[in-house]
Amino acid sequence: MKSKEFFGKFLDRRLWGNLLAMAVVVAALCFGVKYGLDVYTHHGEEIPVPNVRGMGFNEARALIESNGLRVAVADTGYNKRMPADCVLLQTPMGGARVKSGRMVYLTVNSESTPTLTIPDIADNSSVREAEARLKAMGFRLTPPEEVTGEKDWVYGIKARGRRVGMGDRVPIDVPLTLMVGSGTYDDSLMDINYVDPAEVTVTYGGEDDFEVVGEQAGETQAQGGIATQAEAGKEGAQ
Fold it and tell me: Which region ranges are annotated with the description Disordered (predicted)?
């Protein structure tokens, strides 16, 4: 191929037409992607989140959805001073500006008092460990009740004056009382004298005792027989 023919191909209209078509397609794709992302992500749009704290759930959901937002219940809580099924918390907070279609998460007040399970604490931890663990779970504690035993050792848990143990479920608004050792012991328990069973000797009657008893019983029976025969002879003589 001559150089004139080689360079002549670059001047071919079909070549430049294909290159121009490719450039148009690339430009259209770039514009479409940019415009599509703006539409999909709602770029530049901002909607204020309504404040729905304290509202009933149905009312709050209707208000949120009317503003172009979505709603979901993220968790439940309990506040005895608030009506059941009302909104306790929301995320994002009221007044925040978000994009259309954003999800608003609500925490709704429970209809009944939630209960928690008592962990393995009694006779298994110190008072500091027990208090930290129970408070982390959400329990409220009253001043400890001192009992006889090792100082600062937890011997039990009470709820409403009744002793509870591991696995029992207690309402979260019921305060717990730890039964903590005072460092004193019952002196009466120290006066008990323990005896080794191996040192105890039990004495039973010997074999001769049983033989004597047997002989005495035989003599008694013999004497009784002689007396009976004598009485019978007297009656016959009469």
Answer: 217-238
Q: CA–CA separation, 73 vs 60, rounded Å? A: 11
* CB of 207 closer than 8 Å to CB of 173: no
Q: Which DSSP letter does residue 197 get? A: G
pLDDT, tens digit (0-9, with 9 covering 90-100), for 157-197: 999 999 999 999 999 889 999 999 998 876 665 555 655 66
Which residues have CB under 8 Å from 122's CB, separation 6+?
154, 155, 156, 157, 165, 166, 179
DSSP element (H, E) containing 12:
none
* 163 Cβ contact partners less than 8 Å away, ≥ 6 residues apart: 156, 157, 179
Residue of 220, 217, 211, 149 lying closest to 178 (CA atoms):
149
CB 157 within 8 A of CB 176: yes
d(CA 87, CA 120): 34
Which two three-digit tokens encode residue 27? 């430009």
* Integer Cα distance of 139 and 121 in angstroms: 13
Please tell me the distance from the alpha carbon of residue 126 to that of residue 150, in angstroms, as a whole number: 10
Give the DSSP letter string of 138-174: T--BPPPEEESSSTTBEEEEEETTEEE-TT-EEETTS
CB hemisphere CA count around 42 (13 angstroms): 11
Residue range 68-121, pLDDT digits in tens: 999 999 988 888 888 989 999 999 999 899 988 899 999 999 888 888 999 999
Separation of alpha carbons 213 and 148, rounded Å: 57
